[in-house]
Amino acid sequence: MIVFSTVLEIDGQPTLYNVYRNRSLAFLNPSAPAIAPILYASYENSSWTIKGTDDLGIKQQVLNEISIEI
């Protein structure tokens, strides 16, 4: 089930992501997987951990979107 959709900036390009959630895990699936990473966000010990990229800018975008939507 899609919880929400969002647009993240990946390498300077807007990229649509569908966000799915299962308990303490959010799965962010890009509309263009060939150019954008699949991302995972897990909630543990009162904070989110973002996996799937080392780019701090992308991680911050994910945190911003999750804090607004979830």
Structure description:
- It is a single chain.
- This protein is of the alpha+beta class and 70 residues long.
- The protein has one domain (2-69).
- Helix content is 20%, strand content 51%.
- The chain contains 1 helix and 5 strands; from the N terminus they run βββββα.
- A 5-stranded antiparallel β-sheet has the order 1-2-3-4-5, with helices on one face.
- Strand 2 and strand 3 (25-30) form a beta hairpin.
- The longest helix is centred in the C-terminal third of the chain and has 14 residues, at 56-69.
- The radius of gyration is 11 Å and the shape is globular.
- The two termini are 14 Å apart.
- The model has no long low-confidence stretch (mean pLDDT 92).
| Rg, Cα atoms, Å | 11 Å
Q: Fraction of residues in helices?
A: 10-25%
The structural class is alpha+beta
Order of helices and strands: EEEEEH
**Low-confidence parts:** none
Strand content bin: over 45%
Number of strands: 5
The number of helical segments is 1
| Residue-averaged pLDDT | 92
Shape: globular
Distance between the termini: 14 Å
Task: Report on the biggest sheet.
Answer: 5 strands, antiparallel
Number of domains: 1
Q: Largest beta sheet: what is the strand line-up?
A: 1-2-3-4-5
The gist of it:
The protein has one helix at residues 56-69; strands at residues 2-10, 13-22, 25-30, 39-44, 47-51.
